[in-house]
Design a protein that fits this description.
Number of strands: 9
Number of helices: 8
Helix content: 25-40%
Distance between the termini: 47 Å
Keywords: Transferase
Structural class: alpha/beta
Protein name: Omega-hydroxypalmitate O-feruloyl transferase-like
Family: Belongs to the plant acyltransferase family.
Oligomer: single chain
Shape: globular
GO molecular function, one term: acyltransferase activity, transferring groups other than amino-acyl groups
Radius of gyration: 21 Å
Strand order of the largest sheet: 4-9-8-7-5-6
Pfam family, one: Transferase
Strand content: 15-25%
Largest sheet: 6 strands, mixed
Length: 340
Amino acid sequence: MKLIVDCTGEGVVFVEAEADCKLEDLGDMMEPDPIALGKLVYNIPGTKNILEIPPVTAKVTKFKCGGFALGLCANHCMFDGVGAMEFVNSWGETARGLPLKVNPFMDRKILEARNPPKPNFPHHEFIEIEDTSNAGELYNEKMLYRSFCFDQKKLQDLREKALEDGTLSAFVWKAHSKGLDLKPDQKTEILFAVDGRNRFDPPIPKGYFGNAIVLTNSICSAGDLLENPLSSNVKLVLEAVNMVTDSYMRSAIDYFEVTRARLSLTSTLLLTTWSQLSFHTTDFGWGEPILSGPVALPDKEAILFLPHGKDRKSINVFLGLPASAMMKFELYMKFDGNEE
């Protein structure tokens, strides 16, 4: 089944709400709280499947201090992070009566499968990993949500240890496997999305409104991941990123066309980064927001890298884990410069 939006002109579901408190009463909104922040978005109650859920809903909550929150809930089939960012910023430009800086490019046929499809790469991102450590049972516990800030000094210390970009991803992958107490022979995977816009040949037109991301991954045993020096694990991450070429992405499109495969997230760290998404520049006429970010994680196995600070050069690592795993993960995340 392929999803197609029927543009009937009915518009987006728009909800207005008022909160009996000030914005400052919400406390530190950088600390993840999916339950509290979830009240700022609108999910239609009673929906049973994707066809009953609107592609996009918007909710504006007014606070007693005069501030407001805009909560968007969108189906990922509509657009990826870059598409969502351009949509929201264009909305702000329209609200201020300005011409659009980026006009939407709506032709999704440019990313259609070839005819006939020719998947010519192995796509291990769809491999089913056996849970020999029974880590899945941990997710029956209470989930805890935390964020960990890596300022510029911590990031530099990590890079100096591994001498490569991608070091934070490798460090978190290792800590995640330690937190879940994976057995040495347990296969573990890091899975992450790469923006393909400038990796396709020719590049995807600016303003492409859809999904132009491709998933790439690296798999190794938990024993190797934990015993290897950080630099070795960084190489695994970089190899996965560098694998994403035009040929690989075309193969991935064709592979999905043929198989309709679903991702398995067993023993997997699903990493998403928002560091290049400029939601912080959106302006509806009252100035830029004091905070922007996700309300919740897309999956329980997901970890988000969020830009932090006015200069956006620090990174907040936001995730949820079963309570027992989170306590171990927190210990391993206390990087002191001696990580090997």
